[in-house]
Amino acid sequence: MVKYIPSTSKWVRDQVDLYEKTNGEEGNTVGEYPVIIVTNIGRKTGAIRKTPLISVKDGRKYILIASQGGSPKHPNWYYNLKANPMVKIQDGSNIHNMEVTEIFNSDERQRLWEIAVQTYHPYQDYQDKTKRIIPVFLAVPIK
Q: Could you write out the DSSP letters of every residue in the chain?
């Protein structure tokens, strides 16, 4: 059985725990913004990792923004998704098996970025304060 290793960040651990204990009825927002839980496999540990992210949707697909608040470095989960693109996304009580792809195509990336910024305007502030290009992933349901 694959082991779950909670985040080293207390607020992330607490939010994931509350979200899962209440089947997404609590811990489902950051401020006023809805949150999903992305479950993936750690590239170094092989363990289950879970990250709350702002819920940004494009139809049945989810847009995952690796902003880390505009930090100069990508979040650890970015590297996990690059190593293993198969994820589970919990949106409230619904759990979806999905495959993620980092979007590089400029037109598609711009379209997805605009949806993300419309959903959560601080993403643009984060991009403005960092020199790195914030990665955009698209999570697509596995059939």
A: -PPB---SSHHHHHHHHHHHHTTTSSS-EETTEEEEEEEEE-TTT--EEEEEEE--EETTEEEEE--GGG-SS--HHHHHHHH--EEEEEETTEEEEEEEEE---HHHHHHHHHHHHHH-THHHHHHHH-SSPPPEEEEEE--
Give me the domains of the chain, ranges plus CATH numbers. Answer: 10-141 (2.30.110.10)
Mean pLDDT of 55-66: 98
pLDDT number for residue 143: 76
> Residue 14 has which token pair?
């607490």
Contact present, 63 and 96 (Cβ < 8 Å): no
Q: Give the tens place of pLDDT for each residue, 95-105.
A: 999 999 999 99
